[in-house]
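[Solved] Which block belongs to which protein?

Original post:
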Amino acid sequence: MPELPEVEALREFLTGHLVGHEVARALPVAFHVLKTYDPPLSAVEGHPVTAVGRHGKFLDLAIGDLHLVVHLARAGWLRWHDSLPAAPPRPGKGPLALRVALAGPQGAGFDLTEAGTQKRLAVYCVRDPAAEVPGIARLGPDPLDPALDEAAFAALLGGESRQIKGVLRDQSVLAGIGNAYSDEILHAARMSPFKQAARLTGEETAALHAAMTATLRAAVERSRGLAARQLKTEKKTGLRVHGRTGEPCPVCGDTIREVSYRDSALQYCPTCQTGGKPLADRRMSRLLK
C-alpha cells in the first residue's frame, strides 16, 4: 500500500507534470472507483490543474473550482504517460480503473490502476475535500507537520491503551503511516510493536517521535525526484525489516521474525525490539507490556 512517503513523492511528481495543464477528459473505466456523483466527474474537463496536495494517503488535485481526490488503497497505483494510448480503454479489461487525459498535442495524462480482487481504489470529485470525503474528515495530524513536536506527540499517545503498532497505523491518530512504515519506525525506535502506547516513558516517547520523523523524512528524500513508475521499487529496497522475514537484521544480524494476521503481517527484530524474545500470535501473546 502506498503510504505517506510514496504519496508525497507522487504529489511532487504530479505538481511538475499537471499544474498549469487543462484536463481534456476524465473517464472512469471501473464502475466501483468513483465514490461521488455530484458534481459529475466530467465537470473537471476543460479546467486547468492549479495545485496538487496531500492529506495523509490521499492525493488532492485542485482542478478549477473542484477537487479530484484519490485514495490508492492497498493495490492501487498511478501510471503516468507522456502520450496516452490512442485506443479508448475497455471497461472490465485488466487493472485500469480511471484515465485522465490532458489537453495538448502530446496527449499526456495518467491512469489509475488496481491489481487483485479487493477493489478499494477510490476517487472523489468534490467541492470541499475536508467536508465531503469521509476519510479526510477524520484524519489526525500529519507526522511531518512541524506543529507535531515531541510534546504534541506525547499528548496524542497519552490516552491510548492500545498496542503502539495499531496506534501508529490509525489514520485518525496520525495521517499517512501504514503497515510498512510502522514496522520501520518501531525497529528504528527499538520498540516492541505490542507495547502499550499509554505506558511509554518520556524517554521512549521521545525516541519514538525521533524515529518516526527520521524514518519518514528519509523515505521522502529517497523518493524525491523519481518518476511514478520507480516509486514502488524504491519503497521495497529502502525497507529494513518490513517484508524481510527470515533475513538478517541490518543492525544486529538477528533473524527478522513475523507475526501474521488474517490479511496482513508485521515484521520485527527480536534482538533490537523485544529483548531477544520472539513474539507469539497477536491473539495469544501478553509479552512485553
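(Second protein starts here: sequence line, then its C-alpha cells.)
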Amino acid sequence: MSEIRNAGAAALSKRLHGFRSLGDNCEFGFVQRYGGVEPSGLLRFAYTPIEDLIRGLRCGFADFGVPGDLRIAVSDGGTYYCHSLHYNIWSNTGHPAGSIDPALLLEREYGRLAHLKRKMLDDLADGSKILVRKAGREEPASAFAQLAEAVWAHGPSTLLRVTEAGPDWRPEPAQPVADRLIEGRVRRFAPTEQAWDVDLEPWLRLVDSAYALKHGEAPTNLGEGAFAEALRLRGGLRRHAGRHPEVALSAYTRAVDPATLGTDKVYVFSSWVWIPEAFGGERVFAAAGYARLGWRDADLSKRACWQRVWAAGRMRAGVDREPVGLGMIGTKRDSFWSYGARFHEGPIPEQGAPPRLPTPPARPDGLGLLARLRSRFS
C-alpha cells in the first residue's frame, strides 16, 4: 500500500529529471530543487538573455569557457557569479561573496562549466530532454521561433514555452503547438532578483502534463491519497486565536522528530483556512520544518471563504524537533479557522475541493459552541 500511495511522489521526481533549463534566470532550477531533484545543467542556475542564447546555440558555444572568457563578479544579493563575456551567461556559483578566494573559484568554474557545456551539447544531440524557457509578456514570438530553430539544429529536442497566466490561473494541461513544441502557463513567474520565490504548484502540474504529453502517458494522479501520509493529524474544524497583545508570531504546530521521518524526502503540510472579515493580522501560513521549499500562504484579500495554505520542506539532520502546522502573525484580537490538516510525503499538496461546511462564526460564543463544532466535524 505504501508503494502504491507513494506513486505520485515517485512519478513527479522521475518526470522532473526529464527536463533541462534554457536559462532566462534560475527559477526552473529551483522548481526542480523544490520538487526534490538536483539534475546538473549548464543553464540550470544561470541568467541568459534569449538573443545571447540563440547566438551561442548557433555556434555550439564554441567560445564559451575559452581562456579569458570567464570572470567572477558579485551580484546585488552578495553571491559570486561566473560571467561568460562571449555569451553574457551569468552562472550562480552558489558561493557567498567572501567565502572563497575568487581566483580559486574562477579556476574551478572553468573546469565545471566546460564539463556542463559538453553535457548540454550531448543532451541536445540526444533530444531526450524537454527544454524549458520562460517567455515574458513583451518578448516577441519570433524570438522563441529563432530559439527553436537553433536548438533543432543540434537534435530533436522538445521545447516547452512557459508563459504567465496571472492570478486567475487554473490547473490546465500543457498543449502541443507544433511538432516538438509545447506551451503551458503558470500563475506567475518569480521576481527576476528573487528566483527562489517560486509558485511551485502550477509549475509541477505543468511539468507533469508536459512530460505526459511528450511520452504519451497519463498525467500523474495528484488527487486524494496520491501521497503517503507521514503523520496523522487532527483534521477537524479548529479555531486559532492569537496569543500576544502586540503583533507577534503565534504558532499552532506539532513538533516532530526528523529521525522518524528521514531527511532525504520532501514533506508537505497543508490545511484549509477561513479568514474572517474582521481579521487584522499580517500573515497566515504553513510550516513543514523551518526551511520551506514550496509554499502558499493565505491570501488575506480573500475573506469569509475557504482557501488552502501549505508548505513543503525537508527535515533537517541533527536536530531534535521540527515544527509542522500553521502560524499567524497578529495579535490576540485576531483569529482564523482551519480544517483538513494533512502531512504527507511529496512536493505539493493533493488536489481537493474546499470543505462543504457551515460558515464558521465570526466570534465563537463560548467553549460549548467550539466543542460542538469539533465533535461534529472531527
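Accepted answer:
You had them paired correctly. Confirming on the second one: The CA atoms of residues 89 and 203 lie 24 Å apart.
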